[in-house]
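= Protein in question =
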Amino acid sequence: MQTNFTILQNALDASVLRHNTISNNLANVNTPNYKPQKVIFEEILRGEISNYSFSGKLTNSKHIPFGNNSINKPYVADQPFTMQNNGNGVDVDSEMSDLTKNQIWYQTLTYQISEEFNLLKTAIRSR
């Protein structure tokens, strides 16, 4: 069964991979014929959610079905690009915007994991 920690871990892994990919794109902004890359994660997540197969034994018809499913790992793919005169397709403004969005996303995920640990601490202390 997927736990919140596992889901958050996968999202953090995707965020770190995205940060590294964007940094690599920015580092190669002047490299002739460089093709920028992007991380594919949200598309995988949407597909997993839409194909989610519920399982479990329902004891009441009013219960919500539940089950588990694994989320595939994020991966890096070439992104469509507009060639510059040197054949490079990196758009610095777009990459910086994506980097900022990713930083905010990463901070949100780390805050969420912190809150999950706080919930566990509260549960342990209340015993």
The beta strands are 37-40, 75-78. The chain has one domain: 4-125.
